[in-house]
Amino acid sequence: MKALGNISRALLESKLAIGLFAGVFLASVIFFSVSPQFGWHSPNDLLPEVPRNGGSAPSGSPTKEHNDLAPPPVNCTTESPAVNRTTESPAVNRTTESPSVTKPGKDKVTTNSPTNFTGEEIAPSPALLPPLKPICDFSDHRYDVCEMWGDARTASGANRSRVFFIPPPSQLATANAATWSVRSQSRKYIPVREVLVRSLNLSDLHDAPNCTVRRSVPAVVFAVGGLTFNYWHAFSDVLVPLFTTSRAFGGEVELLATDPKDRKWFLGKYGRVLRALSRYEAVDLDADTEVRCYPHVVVGLRGHRDFDIDPARAPNHYDMRAFRLFVREAYALPPTAALPCKSGARPRAMVILRGGTRRFVNPDAVVAAVERAGFDAVRMEPGGSGGRLGGMGMDAVARAVDACDVLVGAHGAGLTNTVFLRTGAVVLQVVPWGKMEPHAEAFFGAPAKHMGVRHVAYSIAAEESTLYEKYGKDHPVITDPDAFYRNGSNARYYWREQNIRLNTTRFMPTLEMVKRMLQE
Ligand SMILES: *[C@@H]1O[C@H](CO)[C@@H](O)[C@H](O)[C@H]1NC(C)=O
Ligand SMILES: *[C@@H]1O[C@H](CO)[C@@H](O)[C@H](O)[C@H]1NC(C)=O
Ligand SMILES: *[C@@H]1O[C@H](CO)[C@@H](O)[C@H](O)[C@H]1NC(C)=O
Ligand SMILES: *[C@@H]1O[C@H](CO)[C@@H](O)[C@H](O)[C@H]1NC(C)=O
Ligand SMILES: *[C@@H]1O[C@H](CO)[C@@H](O)[C@H](O)[C@H]1NC(C)=O
Ligand SMILES: *[C@@H]1O[C@H](CO)[C@@H](O)[C@H](O)[C@H]1NC(C)=O
Ligand SMILES: *[C@@H]1O[C@H](CO)[C@@H](O)[C@H](O)[C@H]1NC(C)=O
Ligand SMILES: *[C@@H]1O[C@H](CO)[C@@H](O)[C@H](O)[C@H]1NC(C)=O
Ligand SMILES: *[C@@H]1O[C@H](CO)[C@@H](O)[C@H](O)[C@H]1NC(C)=O
């Protein structure tokens, strides 16, 4: 936990390289977990107690998925000895825009029995190809990516699924063989099952597996493991960057998921998003018995920022607003709906009631205050049971959020539901004690604004923190949060130990302001 404060700042600034398990800690600390089968939160928030070095999960660990957060602290640069991650990459320029590769047609899905293909026979004419060989770019601080055109073949593997690339004939004679091991997600300091990308040359051409399935559409290979048991991470680390990477293909793309061993539910839970991105059923690459051959493969996801997109770097200048509208469409929500309150109805506010940390210890008072301020309050209960909305699936969550003008909740993964709000809706984020405002802004505030949703932050007073009750007004946890960031114990106190006793008198003016915003 030592480095956590610094790590947290580093992540926030998106500049510094960070250590592997410190990254796991931070990411885990900030958000709480999701009950996979229900699409809603687990009541616990104990992720930071990551078992390491073979240790077992803490007794309170909410789900067994967390056990795979227990990698040895590996070096990002220590791959298997044969692998040189930097080979061939320095000279390469990243291509964000993919060339148009789609010519939809009936012959797009062709299944062949093993054939007499060789690389040279398969490779399209060099004239069709971009100039360079397989492109592996490990330079971004957030993601690694390889992109190849021509003849790329996938195959499952015991420990890593593989992608083989056969350079076009014009380059084959002079090509150097190279191998990369890629974390095909967009949080590269978090371990996921890696994908082995091999660029072949004349010496090892025979290693290329023979195609059993040939496609004329591109493929995107991505890992669904990592921190995706957490709702926010599922969007931030996979769904948003998957959108950025594959939306421009207009559905004419195959999605190949790796690393689903404990996340088999991922492809089901987020199936609507995946089906909206691709006309073809997503493939579990690790379990695939085919050798799939493509004219264009991207391994990895280009994620620009936490739960956010940098339009300047995205194909078609996609932004988070486009992402939100896309998600709404995927969940069959109305495309251009006015806010519910514009129909003359009382504005409706969904109150997210966390069950673990950073929960409201006076939830009924909070809900009553929301009602008193003139809203219809809808409670979003934690866990899979107990509330009106508890235990509901993603479709129901999407519809329930869509029917609201406002999302109210403490800093935490539930605010990810912003993706289902209508344009102009308001997210009212309650920011816990402990200088958490920059995180509140980075993880939810800025993304909400980029989505076309308004964001209001309410920072609690010290007296509203249960840390105040527990440690007293003179304890450094109240008087000197900086000290906790300095020694890395900030997350332990402010993210994990803290709950909130909202002072509804103090909160009321903020609620009233939000109500006025909706009337504008
Ligand atoms: C990780 O990389 C650093 C810097 O390259 C090196 O000094 C260190 O020995 C490596 N650690 C391991 C476990 O390989
Ligand atoms: C890895 O690639 C770099 C840059 O091309 C090269 O200097 C280095 O010798 C390579 N290392 C190995 C083990 O091949
Ligand atoms: C990369 O892009 C820059 C700017 O567009 C260009 O000057 C440079 O030649 C490119 N390098 C390669 C290897 O294509
Ligand atoms: C296999 O090779 C034969 C002879 O070169 C050729 O006629 C045939 O089309 C090839 N099969 C495929 C599927 O390319
Ligand atoms: C797969 O991983 C296991 C354990 O990590 C290792 O013993 C085995 O040699 C690996 N197999 C291959 C084919 O790399
Ligand atoms: C293939 O690549 C390897 C590794 O870069 C190299 O040692 C070998 O000479 C190459 N083979 C040919 C035929 O160029
Ligand atoms: C691919 O098929 C050819 C012709 O049947 C065969 O000679 C070759 O060994 C096969 N390659 C692999 C990797 O199975
Ligand atoms: C960090 O500093 C605070 C304030 O001095 C102290 O209360 C806390 O115990 C320290 N934690 C660690 C892990 O050193
Ligand atoms: C709640 O907030 C009001 C208005 O800021 C303040 O007057 C009151 O003392 C607060 N109550 C508590 C218990 O802190």
Automatic annotation (TrEMBL):
UniProt entry tagged with the keyword Transmembrane helix: yes
Source organism (scientific name): Eragrostis curvula (weeping love grass)
Annotated stretches, region: Disordered: 49-121
Signal sequence coordinates: none
Composition skew (Polar residues), residue ranges: 75-101
Sorted UniProt keywords: Glycoprotein, Glycosyltransferase, Membrane, Transferase, Transmembrane, Transmembrane helix
Membrane topology qualifier: Single-pass type II membrane protein
Protein name: Glycosyltransferase 61 catalytic domain-containing protein
Domain of life where this protein originates: Eukaryota
Main location: Golgi
Record's subcellular location: Golgi apparatus membrane
Pathway: Glycan metabolism
Transmembrane segments: 16-34
Domain (Glycosyltransferase 61 catalytic): residue spans on this chain: 231-428
One GO cellular component term: Golgi membrane
GO molecular-function terms, A-Z: pentosyltransferase activity
